[in-house]
């Protein structure tokens, strides 16, 4: 009743929608870097929206099925193969005992999601199985370990399979460069010139990009704020440290911090940004809170109606 | 501090020095499509900290509130977008803020947490340095640090890491120029006007004075973390024997 890990690759993590309700104790949320891809994975299999999946970063990941089941692959195209035959993301596949599933390396995007009918089974810590390595919480062991060779990923076996795929229009374009930003936090303390610099420049993703945050490289954004009183950091917050190079904070971010922030990327722009690799280029686009709300509701309604 | 050069007015000087700095009802700002930041003060003060603890408690059990991150002068509210839109969440917070009786905050209502500490160079390698830099004896440093009642203003950096303030002026020291790569579990340390206990083994640049045998976080227990924002925290000096008897470990450096 499981997948056996043959090759764990660079980084493969068990994730659900995250560990919520403990940020006041300094516990971060974890959860999928690409929320949209994760949600579609569970929708394709008619799973609970919080059912655990594997987030595969970059690839080099191989598993062998010990029982039959139905899977869905969403997110990045990591050149996946099933028994040596190429398969595409954003759809379901029937799995038989002995099948070998391989994720090679990125073709489009960076992070793929492997969902299984009913979700992967693991004991939750603080209400979630989301793996946060820095905090040593979640995952198969409960201690925040990434997947390792010989790990066994349990699920409830099933022979039921329905071929389904995500509608073409709903599949995000990971080559899109515009990242939507809601301004807030210390935005009003940045001068007009600095705001203009931030929104008109092209930034590239640096080598320092992980589940905690993405450090960008490009035109420095100046700020004359000597530091702020530490405050809660929302998902997607864009910090401007002293060197002026923006850092976008993601799922494994620290809960509080004292760098000035110009605003937050929206949940779905954050999903898009987390599919970018070092060297990829992006630009920030201002949107209002009501546009951000509209964007989110549109994406969620699409999944909901399709289900 | 949300201040900019040249913007210090007479009024903010007055409010920073008296407890009038409380902004209530708080200023509410949507920072993303699913979070808003409540600001209660422009500078750190106990009146604001009391009210933040109260509002956090009041919001805790509201349906559709996902996470609350209280800090020195602000409270970040993360909400379920299926439950609230930007108008509903603002209204909810305003209504709730109007219902809260501010007078119900007083120091006696606060929880007090007492943490036993073995202060000694073998577990507090910076104790001698702090004493000599501050022109005090080691005993005076221990006395000053342990006779102060602290307040937990914020929790972050690592799970259960509570920023406690304020240390007596006489023992204020900057962080170490080179942070240690590994600070042992339970280390009690100071930096500027703050003090803290390391709840897990992490890198850290604070000046270490001693160690507690008490476990600060236990995710298997119901209480989870010993210190919560708003608590009063005291340190109680214990002997080496008491430290060991309570399960304290001497290694780690």
Automatic annotation (TrEMBL), chain A:
Keywords for the protein's UniProt record, in alphabetical order: ATP-binding, Hydrolase, Nucleotide-binding
Signal peptide: none
Domain Carboxyltransferase, first and last residues per copy: 24-303
InterPro entries associated with the record: CT_A_B, Cyclophilin-like_dom_sf, PxpC
Superkingdom of origin organism: Bacteria
Any one GO molecular-function label of the UniProt entry: hydrolase activity
Identification of the protein by name: KipI antagonist
Organism: Marinomonas aquimarina
UniProtKB/TrEMBL annotation, chain B:
Domain Carboxyltransferase: 26-227
SUPFAM superfamilies: Cyclophilin-like (SSF50891), PH0987 N-terminal domain-like (SSF160467)
MF terms (GO), sorted A to Z: ATP binding; hydrolase activity; kinase activity
UniProt keywords, alphabetically: ATP-binding, Hydrolase, Kinase, Nucleotide-binding, Transferase
InterPro entries registered for this protein in UniProt: CT_C_D (IPR003833), Cyclophilin-like_dom_sf (IPR029000), PxpB (IPR010016)
NCBIfam families xref list: 5-oxoprolinase subunit PxpB
Stored PANTHER family: 5-OXOPROLINASE SUBUNIT B
The protein's name: Kinase A inhibitor
Encoding gene, per UniProt annotation: kipI
């Amino acid at each position: 009743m499981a997948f056996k890990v043959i090759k764990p690759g660079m980084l493969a993590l068990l994730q659900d929608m995250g560990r919520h309700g403990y940020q006041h104790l300094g516990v971060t949320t974890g959860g999928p870097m690409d929320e949209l891809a994760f949600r579609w994975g569970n929708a394709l299999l008619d799973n609970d929206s919080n059912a655990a999946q594997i987030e595969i970063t970059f690839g080099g990941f191989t598993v062998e099925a010990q029982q039959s089941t139905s899977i869905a692959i969403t997110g990045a195209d990591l050149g996946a193969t099933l028994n040596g035959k190429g398969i595409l993301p954003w759809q379901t596949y029937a799995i038989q005992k002995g099948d070998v599933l391989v994720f090679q390396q990125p073709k489009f995007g960076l992070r793929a999601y492997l969902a299984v009918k009913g979700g992967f089974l693991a004991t939750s810590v603080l209400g979630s199985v989301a793996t946060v390595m820095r905090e040593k919480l979640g995952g198969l062991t409960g201690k925040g370990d990434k997947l390792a060779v010989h790990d066994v990923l349990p699920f409830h076996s099933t022979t039921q399979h329905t071929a389904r795929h995500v509608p073409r229009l709903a599949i995000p374009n990971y080559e899109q460069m515009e990242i939507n930003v809601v301004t807030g936090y210390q935005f009003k303390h940045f001068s007009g010139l600095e705001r203009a610099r931030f929104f008109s420049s092209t930034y590239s993703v640096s080598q320092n990009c992980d589940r905690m945050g993405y450090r960008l490289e490009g035109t420095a954004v100046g700020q004359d704020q000597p530091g702020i009183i530490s405050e809660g950091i929302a998902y997607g917050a864009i910090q401007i440290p002293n060197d002026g190079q923006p850092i976008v904070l993601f799922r494994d971010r620290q809960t509080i911090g004292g760098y000035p922030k110009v605003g937050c990327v929206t949940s779905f722009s954050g999903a898009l940004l987390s599919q970018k690799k070092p060297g990829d280029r992006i630009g920030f686009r201002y949107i209002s809170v009501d546009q951000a709300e509209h964007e989110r509701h549109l994406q969620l309604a699409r999944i909901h109606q399709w289900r | 501090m949300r201040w900019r050069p040249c913007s210090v007015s007479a009024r903010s000087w007055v409010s920073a020095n008296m407890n009038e700095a409380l902004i209530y009802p708080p200023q509410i700002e949507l920072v993303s499509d699913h979070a808003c930041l409540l600001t209660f003060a422009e500078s750190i003060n106990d009146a604001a900290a009391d009210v933040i603890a109260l509002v956090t408690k009041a919001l805790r059990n509201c349906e559709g509130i996902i996470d609350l991150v209280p800090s020195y002068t602000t409270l970040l509210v993360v909400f379920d977008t299926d439950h609230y839109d930007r108008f509903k969440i603002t209204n909810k917070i305003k209504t709730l803020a109007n219902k809260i009786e501010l007078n119900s905050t007083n120091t006696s209502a606060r929880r007090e947490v007492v943490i036993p500490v073995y202060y000694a160079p073998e577990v507090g390698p910076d104790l001698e340095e702090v004493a000599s830099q501050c022109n005090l004896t080691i005993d005076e440093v221990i006395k000053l640090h342990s006779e102060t009642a602290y307040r937990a203003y914020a929790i972050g950096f690592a799970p259960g890491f509570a920023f406690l303030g304020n240390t007596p002026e006489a023992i204020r020291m900057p962080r170490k120029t080179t942070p240690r790569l590994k600070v042992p579990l339970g280390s009690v340390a100071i930096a500027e006007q703050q003090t803290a206990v390391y709840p897990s083994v992490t890198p850290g640049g604070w000046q270490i004075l001693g160690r507690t045998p008490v476990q600060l976080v236990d995710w298997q227990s119901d209480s989870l973390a010993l210190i919560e924002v708003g608590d009063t925290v005291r340190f109680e000096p214990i002997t080496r024997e008491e430290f060991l008897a309570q399960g304290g470990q001497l290694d780690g450096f």
